[in-house]
Design a protein that fits this description.
The structure is a single chain. It contains eight helices and no strands. The chain is mainly alpha-helical. The longest helix is centred in the last third of the chain and has 21 residues. The chain is globular, with a radius of gyration of 17 Å.
Amino acid sequence: HFGGWLQRRRIAVRSISDDAAQRFLSQAISSCRSRSALRHLLEVLRESGAVPRQSPRVPRGAHAITRAYEDYLLQNRGLRNGTVVWHLMYVGGFLEFTSVRSVRDLQRLSVAHVRGFMALRAERYTRGALKNVAKALRSFFRFLQVERELDSAGLVAAVPAIAEYKLAGLP
């Protein structure tokens, strides 16, 4: 599926990006297995050097926050690079949505920010992708609690639980 999609859009393998993968997933497929396989494929292509490593889009000024979060994910949580990239992409989107530019801006985050961000994503993402966004946000807020001594327990609780039923797609 992905190969044909790339050919129809005339995207060369060396030009595959996380944005292209996200567009493919949102347009073509909603299967969690396909999502997982595509993530693995991107990771293998990056490790082999066929596709350049990409740094997630992060709002200007928020790099110190995301760099510390990336270190936390890699060193404390032991996550693989591919998983970290997806976490940073979702968290970067959240920071952009909330206009967070510095550590000081984190103090003004609210439940309304979390709900607004998740509501916008719910309009475009599959349930499986939405679960990943929720997982990344919860992880980020817990990081802020532990590493930045920010009281973000309310933010963790504001991230909705996304229900996904195994047989929901069957007629």
